[in-house]
Amino acid sequence: MIDLATLASTPAILPVQSRLTAADRWDHILARLGWKRAGHRVEPGLYALGNPGPDSPVFVSANYTLSFDALRSSLDGLAGYILVLDTKGINVWCAAGKGTFGTDEIVNRVFATHLKDVVTHRKLILPQLGAPGVAAHVVKQRTGFWVEYGPVRAADLPEYLKTHKATPSMRQVQFTLRDRLVLIPVDLVRLLPYTLAAAIVMYFLGGWVSSLAVVVTVLAGTVLFPILLPWIPTHNFSTKGFLLGLLVALPFALSPFFRHPDWSWYHRLGQALEFLLAMPAVTAFIALNFTGSTTFTSRSGVKREMFAYIPAMAWTFGAGLLLAVVFIFIR
Amino acid sequence: MLNAYLENTLVYEPALCNGCGVCVQVCPHATFEMDGRLAVLVRPQACMECGACQLNCITGAIHVESGVGCASAMIQAALKGQKEAECTCG
After folding, report:
1. What is chain A's mean pLDDT, rounded?
2. Residues A60, A1: contact at Cβ < 8 Å?
3. How far apart are the CA of A295 and the nearest CA of chain B, in angstroms?
4. A244 interface with B at CB cutoff 8 Å
5. What is the distance between the alpha carbons of residues A118 and A113, in angstroms, rounded to a whole number?
6. pTM of the predicted model, to two decimals?
7. A45-49 and A58-61 strand pairing
């Protein structure tokens, strides 16, 4: 909420450049690594880019550095205002889903920055992905400002601004290889401590092969899965994960047959089954969790997947683990 | 279940459409297209239930149970006993 004192004083318009500095780029790397997840913030308020006048366009953005910087760096050579909402350091699309990039916040921010005294027109250009949190007609009703939904990607803004009409491709989200690659470090860093702990435990239970199996399983889920996503057969993320997990488990399943010709057949088969049961379950679980990072999975679809496959993941993982324990004793 | 994403909760009532076209603008998956003065639901299966069209449709012609399509968020909500999943990435 904005209190009366804030409303009474005319807030400063902060100057900003479109050129990104080395410090900005370093901040982007840290954000992509998940370092201080909520710490990549811009002060909410009104920013002046270039040398804007009362007719200059007003763009709305989130107070996450990656969002704000994508916008300002796309507007190189242009003049305009940027109205930064307080989305708690979350990007536009996720914040719109939560409602923090939303109607109320826009209305409050328009009044708090005295935008009506800064520009003579009454139009706000929003990123299209802000729409899940914003009712354009309500913003108009409450502030007098029309909401115009710009393109999905800030990079398309210069082209868009020529006509203020978005082409169908500007309106569609993508999920390119590059889009998927930049997501890998966050998950990898997040899972690193658990992976190391599990690898150490498995070293003592089953030796270096079991330890390696842990690392390979996590890498398959966090690195291979996002890269190969469109090419892995089947539609559901869980089944894609199971398939990928089976593939990387194969060499491990075969290893006892080559490394331990002296073992009994059931001991070798047992160890092969451990890998074939436990590894795909974990890869499938990581794959299912990747749904939240994609640009296209629906809530009802993910729910159906969860009910259908999480029990299978739990059972196969449990069975693999049980076998591992059993063979510690009968070895 | 071959494809969990074949069905979704998107319901469109063309009789209520006033032809403003905002659904075509806000949908990130080209689910709607304009045909003359009316919006047409051309790719219902592409819907990811983000809810942008419903929120911006002034006549209430679109209904969708919107929410985050994120397993991680739903698992955490289930573990904490919350009814509604909230994304927890940031």
Report:
1. 94
2. no
3. 8
4. no
5. 9
6. 0.93
7. unpaired
